[in-house]
Amino acid sequence: MGKRDAMFSRSGRTSLFGKRTLPVHSKISEETAEGLRRLAHEAGLNSVSEFLAVLIETRVHGEDMVRSVMEQRIAVVSGKAPERR
After folding, report:
1. Is the pTM of this model over 0.90?
2. Least CB-packed of 35, 45, 48, 55 within 10 Å?
């Protein structure tokens, strides 16, 4: 992998909550799954998995903490975050 490829491979930043590596499994009805797909879509998220991750993080860590993490991400994307070395 060249330098150009490395620039696009990873951000070099880890979430304050750590890397998402632990799968969470649960059996649910098709009706419930359809409801989750609808909620994820309405929230503008790419998948039920992403929706559930944000839902769980919000319940575990609190809305203020999750909001702070998302605001930091926006600051990085918009170029308003402090420089990292």
Report:
1. no
2. 35
Cβ contacts of 66 within 8 Å, gap of 6 or more:
54, 57, 58
pLDDT band at 18, cuts 50/70/90? Answer: confident
Q: Give pLDDT, residue 81.
A: 76
Q: Which is nearest to 40 in space by CA: 31, 49, 27?
A: 49
Nearest to 53 by CA among 75, 43, 32: 43
What's the CA gap between 76 and 78, in Å, rounded?
A: 6
Residue 9 CA to its chain's centroid (Å): 17
Question: Interior CA angle at 67 toward 61 and 69, to 5°?
Answer: 80
